[in-house]
Amino acid sequence: MGAEKRKSTAPFYAVGVLWICWGVLLPLYHPAHYVAAAVVSAVVFFLVSMLCRTGAVGQTEQAKEAQAKETQTKEAQPKEESTGNPELDKMLRDGRLAIAEMKRLDENIADPGISADIVRLEQVSAKIFEEVGRSPDKLPQIRRFMDYYLPTTLKLLNAYDRMSGTGVSGENIDATLARVEGMMRTIVSAFEKQLDSLYGTEALDISTDITVLETMMAREGLTDQPLKADEPKDGAVRPGL
């Protein structure tokens, strides 16, 4: 059901004020006086009603424009599509938030060295989330990364952001900033190794495929490389076996 629209009471108040003023300032002795007052009242009522209606229409148009802008803003925002895996969805959502926080910290922190490290962390983290998004079976491999390493790193960087923004040099502040700065290269290296570890199984499979391919091509005489001495030819049996 639509909301009930209430008419403005302003025209009635205007007519009431008119009659009070008329009674004080103008005569009301004859029927003609009352007729004149009624005519003027009708005109005032009509004019005030039109003004109220115009104002209401303007407010309605403004409300519609505001609602349209809000709808456009919501439509412009990217919709999060579910993968069907709640744990993976959470990882991707937390990953987006972490990347956004890194961008904010990079903008806030003036130190060029820390800023460069944050950019590198952002790049590596994005690749980690992208790879796990493609291969959800790798999700267990980054559980500690998501639960501890990533949030702790963001905590350290936020502390650095707050302390470096105070503009004050002191024993505690300087020592904390120095420790975070000294830790950043280690953190970057750890993030890079986390990304590298995601390709461990794939790298082993590729290495095995390459070895088998090289051996088969050598046996068939399709390459210039001779068969390794420890590799038996077709049907051959190694001595001593």
Summary of the model, kept short:
The chain has 241 residues and is mainly alpha-helical. It is built from seven helices and no strands. The chain has two domains: 10-63; 86-202, Single alpha-helices involved in coiled-coils or other helix-helix interfaces (Up-down Bundle).
Which descriptors would you attach to this protein?
mainly alpha; elongated; Single alpha-helices involved in coiled-coils or other helix-helix interfaces; 7 helices; disordered C terminus; 2 domains; 241 residues
Please explain how this structure is put together:
The protein is an all-alpha fold and 241 residues long. The protein folds into two domains: 10-63; 86-202, Single alpha-helices involved in coiled-coils or other helix-helix interfaces (Up-down Bundle). 73% of the residues lie in helices and 0% in strands. It has helices at residues 10-25, 31-76, 86-108, 112-134, 143-164, 171-197, 200-219. Helix 4 (112-134) packs parallel to helix 6 (171-197).
Instruction: Assign the CATH topology of the largest domain.
Output: Single alpha-helices involved in coiled-coils or other helix-helix interfaces
As residue ranges, the low-confidence spans are 235-241
Known CATH architecture of the largest domain: Up-down Bundle
The counted number of beta strands is: 0
Strand content: under 5%
Characterize the main sheet.
none
Inertia-based shape: elongated
* Count of discrete domains: 2
Number of alpha- plus pi-helical segments: 7
The Rg value, from CA coordinates, equals 39 Å
Q: What is the name of the CATH class of the largest domain?
A: Mainly Alpha
